[in-house]
Amino acid sequence: MIEYHSSTESLMQSQKKLVVTIVLVSFVLAAKFIGAYTTKSLALLSDSWHLATDLISLIISWSGLRSSLKPASAKYSYGYCRYSVFTALINNISLILISIYILYQAILRYFHPVEIAPHGMILLSVFGLLMNLAIIRNLGKHSKNANVKSVFLHFMGDALSDVGVLIGGVIILLTGQHGVDTVLSAALACLILKNALRMCHECIKILLEAVPKDISIEELRNALKEIQEIVDVKDIHVWSLSMETLAMTAHVCIYEANMALYETTLHKVQHTLKDQFGIEHSAIQIENLPCSSCYHSKPDHSLGCNLCVDCPRSSTAVQKETALIQNCTNKTFLNKLLKKKRL
Questions:
Q1: How many C-beta neighbours within 10 Å does residue 199 have?
Q2: Are the C-beta atoms of residues 325 and 288 closer than 8 Å to each other?
Q3: CA 12 to chain centre
Q4: pLDDT at 211 over 50
Q5: What is the domain partition of the chain in residue ranges?
Q6: Which tens digits make up the pLDDT trace of 45-96?
């Protein structure tokens, strides 16, 4: 079961956490950039650029949280949820470019070695590690917001990067092998590149309105069919407005055409969607024949619908099923048909 929290109080707490994190990251970033140019450590420089993109990501996340508090309007009927997705995509594309640049510099550094000051590497990596641990502690306190959780995991990775730079500085200090710095910078760039590509893929999936990875259409359909009044669920569409906000539409077929039953069933459907799948915004169409109100179920609109996951069929198959439904005048026969379709 997915836990889903979207209250204003939760969003305000998440904003405060991000503001504190932005201040801490700004101090660490300034120190690391100065240290990178002072010690000539490429590993430290690559970590500094990574931290710069982290700071941009934090500002974007904070801005996204502020925007998400804006209500929907007649012009933006879904609100401003996609704002954070667009900005996150731009941020991760820049992260990919920076990673490629760091790899390029690592190759140049391999053929043209530079003497590195390991003491500065060690000092700054310890400072960065302590600050990252403080950030992790701040973000990890009872956080239920998806954006804050993703930032928390990101800084866990940053803490590991600081550990890598620390180990590299110690090795250079003890052995004098300055090539370790080049290897570490290339490894960090590959790690950044991998995460950026993964996040770009997630953003593109949201923009393409793909089904969220934690939701299965079949599991959702079966959960709704567990409700006593429901015969079948068709034409299900589930998508993400942002990484936190999900939306859904569906056609729900019930046994009896009754307005009171409509209201009761709709209430149960909404509770199931919220409690089991974290879907708060849904548009449910109640019917007493499967897809009886669908465009493709009518005799003069018999072609299959490309947007209906239940209708990848030929027009002949649609016509036969439509004719069969329309000939069901006897209620007993209708119930038998619906039970057969349910199986």
A1: 21
A2: no
A3: 20
A4: yes
A5: 8-207, 217-342
A6: 777 777 787 787 788 778 777 776 777 888 888 887 787 788 778 777 877 8
Query: Residue 61 half-sphere exposure, CB side, CA atoms within 13 Å?
Result: 29
Beta-sheet strands, E only, within 46-110: none
How far apart are the C-alpha atoms of 335 and 104, rounded to whole Å? 69
- Distinct helix (H) and strand (E) counts, the chain: 10, 3
User: 124-161 pLDDT, tens per residue?
Assistant: 788 878 888 888 887 766 455 556 666 776 677 677 77
CATH architecture of 217-342: 2-Layer Sandwich (3.30)
Rounded Cα distance between 272 and 223, Å, is 8
CA distance 258 to 314: 33
* Cβ atoms 246, 269 nearer than 8 A: no
Q: What is the DSSP string of 231-281?
A: EEEEEEEEEESSSS-EEEEEEEEESS--HHHHHHHHHHHHHHHHHHH---E
**Domain formed by 8-207, architecture:** Up-down Bundle (1.20)
Phi and psi at residue 235, to the nearest 5°: 50, 50
Nearest to 231 by CA among 288, 295, 309: 288
Tokens of 43: 């590993």
Which residues, including other chains, have CB under 8 Å from residue 251's CB and lie 6 or more apart?
A: 233, 234, 235, 285, 287, 290, 291, 293, 294
Two structure tokens written together for 179: 């090539």
Query: Could you tell me the pTM of the whole model?
Result: 0.69
Distance CA 54, CA 326 (A): 60
Single-letter amino acid code for the residue at 3: E
